[in-house]
Every structure is written in structure tokens, then in C-alpha cells.
Amino acid sequence: MTTSAQTVFAPARATTAADSATLRRKQGFQHGGWFVAPFLVLFTLFVIWPLLRGVYLSFTDANISGDGASFVGLDNYREALDDPLMWDALGHSAYFTLLVVPCITVLAFLLAMLAHHIERGKWLWRLCFFAPFLLPSTVAGNLWQWLFNPGTGMINHVFGIETPWLTDKSYAMLAIVITTLWWTVGFSFLLYLAALQSIPDHLYEAAKLDGANAWHRMVHITLPMLRNITGLVIALQILASLQVFDQAVVMLDFGPGPENATRTFVQYTLEEGFTSYRVGYASAISIIFFVLIAAVALARMWLLRNREEGAAR
Amino acid sequence: MGRPGLNRRQLLATAGGITVAGSFGFAALGTGADALASSADTRVRYWNLFSGGDGSNMIAMLDAFRAANPDIDVKDSTLQWGNPFYTKLAMAAAGNRAPDLGVMHLGRVPGFSPGRLLDPWDVGLLARYGVREADFDPALWQRGVIDGQLYALPLDIHVQLCFYRKDVLKKAGLLGSDGRIVPVTSTDDWFAVLKEAKKATKKGLQTIGLWVNDQNFQWWFFVAFYTQLGGTWFDAAQRRVTFDTDKAVQVLEFLRRHITDGYADPALGSVNAEQFVNGAPFAWEGNWSVPVYSGAKLDYGAIPLPPVFGEQATHAESHSFVLPHQSDRGGGTNEAAHRLAAYVVTHAQQWAAGGHIPAYTPTLSTPAYKKLDPQSEYVSAMTHQATEPKVWFAGSTGILAQRIGPIVVSSTLGSAKPDTVARRMKSELATLLAMKNPMDGRTAAQGGTAA
Amino acid sequence: MTTKAWTPSQIILTLLATAVSLVFLSPFAWALFTSLKSETEAVEVPPHWLPENWTGQAWTALFETGNITNWFVNSLVVSVCVTSVVLLVSALAGYGFARTEFRGKGVLMGVVMAGLMISPAVLGVPLFTTVQQMGMVDTYWGMILPQCAPAAMVYILYKFFQGVPRELEEAAFIDGAGRWRVFFTIVVPLARPSLAAVGIFTFIASWNNFLWPYMVTNNPDLMTMPNGIATVMNSYGIQWAQLMAGGLMAGLPLIVVFVFFQRQIVAGVAHTGLAGQ
User: Fold this and answer.
1) Is B175 within the bounds of a domain?
2) Highest mean pLDDT: which of A90-99, B102-111, B131-140?
3) How many domains, in total, are found in chain C?
């Protein structure tokens, strides 16, 4: 084994060349730019450059063919602020987020509590609750489109109802929300499960000795210990839900839904850019969307920092 | 090496290495498995949007073409109709990876930037394969000509029809002595017919399916009846909106009344075909439903949408072949694309079985075509077409249809009042008229391409 | 805890979990049974769970039309390439940010963190025009490379490398080992669990990715499974039995992977999740 040989000889060498060793140690951690370089090249090409390009395009009337764009100043932004379809789309994404986030958080927590407290077959419950997450979004969308189908679909049949899920504007978004819950709750469920398992047992045992019942243990130990992970789950869900696209378009055959009721923001940007060929305008609304997403992310960081400071005090 | 696990680990590492290397190699080749496997000299990539009966007819025609031209490999791909198809076609052309041959609705051609996203046909080459301008309706042929070049080769005309079940109408006493539906010339006539038909309809079925929640169908029906009333959209210079809100209100109230009087059920809006097959007396659908209903062995007929406002007019569009833009278009593949398009256009008998009226007029006069039923019952629709205005934002599932379709639906379903909806339609038309075509920065009034 | 008692509360919880699991699994069952019906039986009204005539026609038709096998290969190629590039690049970058010094590190780290907020969903249109300029529309590279710069994975590995004791590397440096050798022979083996988590998640994300491949590929020959299933139609119209069979084929590989690597995946979620708290 070469490594043990090196260890044996190392001290002797170190004594004779202590200076150069220190130098080598220092050098070892310096000029790390080469480690970061490959990532930075890809990151610059496919993240930073598109962002800058998006900002530039948003001030032009560029079209899909990629040539002949001219500068139009703030026209695109002015149009966007006045565009009822953009506000509608933003409203739909926000409405979806508002419905999905609380449902998924609560459901994920309950499922995790269930799986955590059952002693037998943990792997089985984990598999059952997580499996839908492993499907591609389009497969999940197709599957539920089929389940919601009038006449031939199982949902109306099982519950004995005749709800026009995907053809009525008051139900279509709800159908997408139900699909999303089934499809994505597994990820948050695993996060909660991991957090539950990382709570030290001795806390519960101490509480038991103090005579706390199950309810008290949950309110005074489990829930406080899950605060951080809940914050993470909510933040991740808000960011993901605002960007909803896949399942919504698949379930409604790439259309805007009954009376435009399910056209999401991402869908609208892509329609403007690729269907109406207005790349300049689509870039402008993308930038508006980016600012919104960044604001949500920064708000979370700010909340987190405040809380840490509060905890430190 | 003493540990037995090491061999397995080495094996796994080797297999992993081969997978990774193989993947990178495959990605570097870059053409996909299907193209690698193709052995023909010339491979034509052809995109269409035909599914259902159209899809199987197209496949039959392609198979016949393949049998006649064994040296040409046709790779046909069917993309989802409507937005997804046009989006993909535009993006492929913009990214310079366009297929060799594509299908488009004729109404979409002016807005699809001929010259940028489309390449012109080589008319001489087409003639060599048997396609000549003289064999087409001149107006139809001219719709594909922009700036003197042919960009779209018409394949057919397709129209919206009123399908009716002869068995049900017979019971209701609504069939004439010729075995066809009694003539309808006013809205009163029409609702009287529906009233009688409803009595003869089985329980659980609606009287008529007219796609009440579908923004495309509702828009097409609107165009048809608005044209029957003699309504117009823009003035000749395309500077002013001439949309008549009073006429629009009449049409919207007419469409809405099918629901309020209980003839159409919004809950069954997406399953009209199934309802018709199960015995619903009426369905308003495109002629592409003919193979579906004929295949189900129904006793049915089909007329153009009834002239309830006096004049005959029914919504019509056309499928056409286009050459999506390739910067290096030419050579054997391009010739093969011409050959394929010409073959399909001139062998349109099979296509007519799908309910479409062939654009290649020699087909219409063949005895085989005249025998087709119910095609012969509605072939007259060809002479009174209601089409969308000829502007860059029009055409099947174009911006116009996307913007206005949902507004029409909101009236039909009762979420908005007809007069409010008519005003919204008018203001939307004004917005669109003022809008610049993103491809050339010109409005409809300035637009050379649309003229 | 080798023998677990069936206390009343355990029985209730198990029954509850069974019921919930059935609800979660029933859509899979519905897909499977639909795929084993004939197309006409699949659309019968009212619907019924089990096929009256069991038939594999949807599955054979799926393989005969050919597209699905192409897409499967494409999915595999793209996911393998993305996963290997991401592993290499983000391990290097995570280590670089966590352990080495270079000018502008703080600023660069901030920029990378800002990258967490950018995705093809947010900036798809400009990203497409960028890739269009590079001439990579409808190519494998156009699909692969933009998926290879995930700031999140760099962040996860950065967090991990920060927690590794410095002494191991220092000892090796004193022995005269070069930086790259230290990285590949000492640091990478230590990071194996984290790398496994990153690798598995990248693979899942890439296999299931729809939005970006949807934007950048139009040629059906090059499409991946999720994209092909959603955008390319069967020429005979929507055939639900085939659609369900195709969906199962797209979804099953990952479910099988999950069954085999459940421990690692759960640990991976825990690891990444807890890192993000």
C-alpha cells in the first residue's frame, strides 16, 4: 500500500524540509481558479449570458428568426404592464401557487408522520408515497388527463359525479392542482421524513419522563424541530409552483384552458416568443418574471437571516 | 485483487465507462438512431398534423409513395395539431433544422414569414411531377402565392359541416323524400328542427354537439354565421375595423341559445363525436369526422352549416404543403420533397375519403369521387366559403383565433353577455390591426406579405 | 426492536397507510390496466378497472411504430451525458469554492448563488435564442449542455466539502502530492455519498426534464421520452392504451432504480434538503 509507505516517510521529510512543506501546503489551497473554471464556462454560456441577452432583447423588437432586431426602448415593458393577458397569466400562476403550497406542505407533513410512526414496512410506504414523483411530468399529466376525462375517466366514475374537470373554467385549475399534489408531494414528504428522523430520541424520552402526552410532544418538540425544514419546503414549493408549466399544458393539450383559465405565466412567455414569434416582448415579460422570482428568493433569505439573528440574541 | 468484491466492482466500473463513452459517442454522431438505421439514398423528413382518419389516409398514401419510389425513405412525423405544431415548425426553421417538407393551413402562410421561415416551391420541378396551376381553383392557388412566388401548394379545402343522424331524424319526421334533412333557412326553422329532434333523442344524449367549450370551433362557427349575415372585418386598406357589433350579437345569441334552450350540454362539450355515435341527432364538426362516422357504420348525412341567416356560408380552410426554410435547401432531398408533395396532391382520391374536398380539380370529376357519400352532399360548400380575413395574424389557430376564440366561448357558455363580448371582439380586432407583424415590423395596413 | 408488537395504534396507522398507499398507487394501476385493453375497450363508457379481454396490442404497437425505442435511447444518452458532466464539473467547482483561494472568489460565489433563481422556465426564450446563435437547436449538445450548469448541485457539494476536515489534504500536500492528485485520490472518495446523491438527482431531473428539451428539439428523431410522448401524436389519433403503455415505459426505469437504490436516494434527499435549510 503506497499510502502507508508515504506516511512512514513523511515525518522524516517534513523535518528536513519544513519550510517547503508549509509552502506546499499553502500553495495546495491557492490558485483554485482552475477547479472552478469548467463550471464557470458552462454557467456563463447558459445562465449568465442568456440573462444578459434577455435584458438586451427586452429592449428590442427581435423576432424568432434571430435577425433584424431594432431598439424600441421601454416599449415592451410599457406594453407588458398594460397587457391583460400577462396579468391573467400571472394571476393563474399565483392562484395555482396559493392552492398548491399549503396543501402540499400539510399533506407531506402528515404522510411523513404516518410513515415515521409505523414500525413495519417503512420502505413500502416510502416507495408508495414517493413513486409518483419519479414519473416525467408529461406522463403524470397524460395520466390524469385520462383520469379526468368525461365519460371514460375513472374519477367521475368512482365518485359517481359528472364534473366537467378540464372543460369548465372553475374546475380546470383544480384538476391541475390535484394532479400536482399527487405527483410532487413525495419530494417534500421525503424531506420531512428525513427531518423527523434527525430529531434526537432523547428529547422525546425526556418529555415522556416529564409526563408529556403524544399531543404535547408533537406541539412542543416535533413542530419546533421541523420549523427549518418547513421553511425550506414552503420556499421550494413557492418557487417551483410559480414556474408551473408542464402538467398544465399537457392536461389541456397545450391550449390555454377553458376560457383561458389555465394559461400560466411560463406558458404565456413561450406562446409570445415561439408561437407569436415576438422574442423581444417575450424577453421583457421573462425579465419581469425573473425579478419576481428573485424577490421571492431574496425574501426567504432575508427572513432566514432575521430568524437566525433572533435565535442568536 | 484478493477480495472477491473487486471483480464485480471492476466490472461495474467498466460497464459504466462504456455506457458513458457510448452516450457521448452517440451524442457526437448527432443524428438519432432512426436516421442512422436508414439505408435509403434519400431521406425526406416530413412533418404533418394529421391524426385520426386523416392520419391513416396519409399513412396509406405515404405507403403507396414508398412502394412507387423505393429509393426514397420518407420519415413522417405527426405533431400535435394547432399551436404545438406551428411552434415546432417555426422554431425548427429558425434554428435551421427544418424538416424537408411540412404541412400548413393556407391561412397561416402570410404570417409565417415566407422567405424567412419558408422557402418557395420550384414550380418547374412541380410541373415535371405533374402539378400545374391550371388544375387548381385560381383563387385557391393564388392564396399560396406571395410576392410572385409559390410558397404553399394547396392539398384540399376543408369545411365545417352539420352532421345529422338519418335514423333519428326519420323518427322525428325531419327527413325529406330524398332522404336528406328538411331545408332550414332561418333561426326559427333551425330551432324548430332541434325541438322535434330532441323529442326523438335517447335519454342521456344531447340534441346537438357544437363544441361549446372549444375556442377553435366556436370561432369557426362564428366566422361562418357572421359571414352569412354579410359581416366584414376590416376595410380594404386594412386600416379601419369594420366589424359590425349588431351582427355579432345576433350570431352570439344564436350560438348561446343552443345551451339555454337545452339542446347542447356544456358538460359533454368535449365528447361530441362519442355522443353522435351513440345516437345524438346532430353534430357540428369539421369534414374530417367523415371517416370516423363512416367507420362506425352510422346512417348519417352531412350538409354545410345551415343558412339560418339567409345566405349560404360555412367556415373553410385549406391544408397545403410548404417547404420550411433550410439555408442549404436543394439537391436530391429537395427534389424528393417536391416529388412527394406532388404525388400526394395528385393522388387525392384517398384523401377525399377523409372528407376533404381535394384541391386538385381533376380528382373532383372522377366517377370514384362522385360516388363518395356524404362528400357529394356537401361539395357545394366549396363555392361559398367563409374564411378569416386575409391578414398576417389570421389562419387556423393563429393569433386572431387565439385571442378571439376564448371571448366567443365566454358568450356561448354564458359567462359574459353577447353585447359585451361583441364590443370586446371589436376592440381586440383594433388592437391586432395596430399590431406589428414581429417578422417584418409592419402592421396589416403596411403589410406587403398579407396582400 | 426485532419483534414489534401489533399495538392498537400500530394497527390503525398501518391500515391508514395502506389506504393512502392504495390511493397513491391506483393511478398506476389504472394506467397499467388501460394499457392492457384494446383501444376500443379503453374508451368504453362507463369505464371498468380490469380488461375484459387482456391484450398486449398497445405494447406491441408501441414497439412496432419505432419512435418509442428511439426516444428511450435519446433519454438515456442525454441523461448519462448530463449526469457525468454535472458530476465532474460541480465536484470540481464545489471543491474549488470550498477549499481554494483565488481572486474574486466571493463575487463569483455570489453570482453562482444568484444562478439558483434562473431556470429555463424563467428565461427560456433568451436561452433558446442563445442556443440558436450557437447553432445547437435540434442537436444533442443543445439539449445536454444547458442542463450542465446547475448552481444547486455546486452549492450542495460546496457545503459538503466545507465539512471535510482539512488535515487529510494538508498531510497529502506535505507529502508532495499535487492538487489534482489530492482531489481525485483523497477528496473524491470521501465525497462518494454526496456525489451519489448529486448523480442520482441529476439523472432523475434530466430523465424527466420536459421544458428544455421541448423548447430545443423539434426533430422527432432526437426527442427524449417525456418530450416525444407529449408532442408527437400517433397518426391514428389519441390512443389511450398506447399512451398509457408509453407513459409506463418512460416512468418505470426510474421506479426500478428507486427500488434498488432507495437507501441512497432517501439519504440524498435528506442530505440535500438538510443542506438547504
Assistant:
1) yes
2) A90-99
3) 1
In this prediction the pTM is 0.88
CATH number of the structural domain spanning residue C175: 1.10.3720.10
Q: What is the ipTM of this complex?
A: 0.92
**Residue-range definition of the domain harbouring residue B219:** 159-316+382-434
**Alpha-carbon gap, residue A289 to A274, rounded angstroms:** 17
B283 beta partners: B163, B209
Average pLDDT of span B20-42: 81
Contact across the interface for A191 and C270, Cβ inside 8 Å? yes
Q: Could you tell me if residue B52 is left (phi over 0), alpha (psi between -120 and 50 degrees) or otherwise beta?
A: left
Q: Do residues B178 and B90 share a domain?
A: no
pLDDT digits (tens, 9 = 90+) for C87-110: 999 999 999 999 888 888 899 999
Reduced to 3 states (helix: H, G, I; strand: E, B; else coil), residue B323 is: strand
Q: What is the pLDDT of residues C29-86, one digit of tens each?
A: 999 999 999 888 888 878 899 999 999 999 998 888 778 899 999 999 999 999 999 9
B311 and B348 housed in the same domain:
no
Residues 6+ apart with CB under 8 A from B231: B243, B244, B247, B248
Does residue A263 sit at the B interface (CB-CB below 8 Å)? no
3-state secondary structure of B175: strand
Whether residues B308 and B326 fall in one domain? no
The pLDDT tens digits of the residues spanning B131-166 come to: 999 999 888 899 899 889 999 999 999 999 999 999
CATH number of the domain enclosing B197: 3.40.190.10
For residue B174, tell me if it sits in a domain: yes
Q: Residues B264, B396: one domain?
A: yes
* Same-domain status, B176 and B311: yes
Query: According to the model, what pLDDT value does residue A312 have?
Result: 58
Q: Structural domain of residue C103, as residue ranges?
A: 54-276
Contact C140 B27 (CB under 8 A): yes
Structural domain includes residue C100 = yes
The one-letter amino acid at A108: A
In a domain, C216, yes or no: yes
* pLDDT at residue A78 in the model: 96
pLDDT at A181: 97
Same domain, B309 and B430: yes
| C-alpha distance from A216 to closest chain C C-alpha (Å) | 17
Judged by a CB distance cut-off of 8 A, whether residue B410 touches chain A is: yes
Per the CB < 8 Å rule, is B269 touching A166?
Answer: no
Residues B222 and B131 in one domain: no
3-state secondary structure of B421: helix
Number of domains chain B is built from: 2
Contacts of A50 (CB under 8 A, 6+ apart): C118, C123, C126, C127, C129, C130
Q: How confident is the model at residue A9 (pLDDT cuts 50, 70, 90)?
A: very low
The third-level CATH classification (topology) of the domain covering A85-312 is MetI-like fold (1.10.3720)
The three cell numbers of residue B402 are 387565439
The region, left, alpha or beta by phi > 0 then psi within -120 to 50, assigned to residue B331 is left
Residues of C in contact with A228 (CB under 8 A): 277
Chains that touch A (3 or more CB pairs under 8 A): B, C
pLDDT digits (tens, 9 = 90+) for A23-40: 666 665 666 788 999 999
Q: Mind listing the pLDDT tens digit for each residue in C225-270?
A: 999 988 887 666 678 899 999 999 999 889 888 888 888 777 777 7
CB contact under 8 A, C220 and B89: no
Indicate if B311 and B323 belong to the same structural domain: no
Q: Which residues of chain C neighbour A27 with C-beta distances below 8 Å?
A: 173
Judged by CB atoms closer than 8 Å, whether chains meet at B33 and C70 is answered as yes
Evaluate whether residue B256 is within a structural domain.
yes
- Cα→Cα distances C212→B146, B190, B415, B416, C71, Å: 35, 50, 36, 37, 15
Domain limits, chain A: 17-77, 85-312
